[in-house]
Amino acid sequence: MRSTLNRWRVPLAMVAALSLAGTAGFLTSQVYGAGAKQTATTVTINVATGPAGLQGPPGPPGPAGTSSCPAGFSPGEVVINHPGGQTIIWTCIHD
User: Fold this and answer.
1) Model pTM above 0.85
2) Of the candidates 42, 34, 44, 45, which has an alpha carbon nearest to the alpha carbon of residue 71?
3) Exposure check for the chain: N or C terminus, fewer CB within 10 A?
């Protein structure tokens, strides 16, 4: 019995290692492929001219963003047309 176990030890280790490597490769492809499935949209906002409002206080910087949007949202550009020019923001837009 002991010699049979020793005989299959190397092939079983190789099968286990290849299975783990294949699983890791599949999971990696799913992670990198998830971002490619989302399509970008563009939303344009036109701000009317009028008197300028009061300057608001500066806000604290937010946390670093992620490369994916939560469920129900898609990545895209928000283009804000205003009297001073145009501002473009890359963000998550509600579907």
Assistant:
1) no
2) 34
3) N
